[in-house]
Write a structure and sequence with these properties.
Elements (H helix, E strand, L loop, with lengths): L2 H9 L9 E5 L3 E9 L2 E9 L2 E17 L2 E7 L5 E7 L4 E7 L5 E10 L3
Antiparallel strand pairs: 1-2, 1-8, 2-3, 3-4, 4-5, 5-6, 6-7, 7-8
Length: about 120
């Protein structure tokens, strides 16, 4: 057993997310995610398909800790989209799945970067 890996996995310093803003870059879209608390966030889509865009919404979320610095976040948007994300702040990766109101399922991953205040 690799004890260094086990020690690192369970002793990494927690990343503070509540109150912080992060850029989620999916390539085809970019959004600023602001964690307002453990049960709410605001997302602002700032780019879609390479063009500037501005669309913001505050949503209630369910945030589940999978392991230190890795969370499962779920929410429903006012347009009917349902979102499920694995947010890995340890490796700065986000895995996102969403279902559109018409039933179309979309799966992408992207990078997470902290936004300086």
């Amino acid at each position: 057993m690799d004890t260094d890996l086990v020690t690192k996995t369970f002793t990494e310093a927690p990343v503070k997310i509540v109150g912080e803003k992060f850029l989620f870059d999916f390539g085809m879209a970019k959004a600023i995610i602001h964690f307002l608390g453990k049960e709410a966030l605001q997302f602002t889509i700032i780019e879609k398909l390479g063009a500037p865009h501005e669309e913001a919404e505050r949503v209630e979320i369910k945030l589940t800790t999978i392991q230190p610095n890795v969370y499962l976040a779920t929410w429903k948007e006012k347009n009917g989209n349902t979102i499920t994300q694995v947010q890995d702040f340890q490796n700065n990766i986000v895995y996102s799945n969403w279902t559109l109101p018409n039933g179309e399922f979309i799966n992408v991953n992207g990078k997470i970067c902290i936004v300086n205040p």
